[in-house]
Backbone:
């Protein structure tokens, strides 16, 4: 790979900026792909986003940004997506800073932002695998990538694109139906990783998730994953219809695989949940659900009696 340092103004990068949601985000008059398939969603908080704009307003340098140059002369962002999106969204009027949108600034203030020089390291002539390897290395700074985000960088393709629509977008369908059972947020890939863990029977062996993604990488959709996920959620709601905070983080996929075909007395289960929920000796409330199905008391983490009691 050849890596060269180039300079672009924010005026150039924000020209033609468009956010097509699932179909991509583009700038630089359409020649910069800001969110390639291996990139994550926008995860900056308001404070981080505002710090980017303040850094630019004061003329201070941004942290290093990396792009890859494609054979057709276009570019795609390897690292720096969050910073680029921050100033693109500000110029586009998506948010205000100190109660002023970009359109409310004086012309000299606008020009100071638009004429700001962004220094970009551009990778040319690298293979797709080399770019993805470099992507993993340079993304150790800033907001750290989650394990699933790194997997997404490796197994790009139509299968992942479809899976991300269902599991990785803010307010996605998976979040709407399963937010009471899964910890984390869709945009940091918690819902996709959980679904993959369930269907791959990963348990404590996360390598099984990688194997599943590798096997399905080039399939045209993620229907198998989605249908399995829906079956698990439907089973949870039918078996344990009362939602509780400690239902999150349980390996529901494993419980469904083992007990999904059995007939359960939901009323009896609910009464036992209520009893155990009030039992001070039960140290792990989330263990109530696997205990009721497995009858293994170790799930409850029963507190030992104190001496003399």
Residues:
């Amino acid at each position: 790979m050849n890596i060269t340092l180039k300079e672009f103004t924010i005026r150039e990068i924000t020209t033609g900026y468009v956010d097509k949601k699932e179909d991509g985000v583009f700038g630089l008059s359409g020649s910069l792909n800001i969110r390639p398939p291996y990139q994550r969603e926008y995860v900056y908080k308001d404070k981080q986003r505002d710090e980017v704009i303040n850094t630019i307003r004061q003329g201070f340098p941004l942290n290093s940004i990396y792009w890859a140059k494609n054979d057709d002369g276009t570019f795609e962002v390897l690292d720096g997506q969050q910073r680029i999106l921050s100033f693109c969204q500000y110029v586009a009027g998506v948010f205000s800073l100190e109660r002023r949108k970009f359109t409310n600034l004086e012309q000299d203030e606008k020009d100071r932002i638009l004429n700001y020089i962004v220094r970009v390291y551009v990778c040319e002539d690298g293979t797709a695998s080399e770019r993805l390897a470099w992507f993993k290395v340079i993304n150790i700074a800033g907001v750290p990538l989650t394990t699933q985000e790194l997997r997404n960088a490796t197994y790009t393709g139509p299968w992942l694109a479809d899976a991300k629509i269902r599991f990785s977008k803010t307010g996605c369908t998976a979040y709407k139906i399963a937010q009471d059972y899964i910890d984390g947020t869709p945009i940091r890939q918690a819902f996709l990783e959980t679904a993959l863990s369930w269907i791959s029977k990963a348990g404590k062996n996360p390598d099984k998730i990688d194997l599943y993604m590798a096997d399905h990488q080039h399939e045209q959709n993620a229907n198998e994953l989605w249908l399995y996920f829906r079956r698990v959620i439907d089973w949870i709601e039918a078996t344990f219809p009362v939602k509780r905070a400690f239902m999150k983080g349980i390996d529901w996929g494993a419980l469904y695989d083992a007990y999904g075909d059995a007939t359960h007395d939901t009323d009896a289960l609910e009464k036992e949940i209520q009893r155990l929920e009030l039992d001070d000796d039960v140290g792990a409330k989330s263990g109530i659900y696997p205990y009721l199905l497995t009858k293994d008391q170790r799930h409850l983490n029963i507190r030992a009696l104190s001496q003399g009691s």
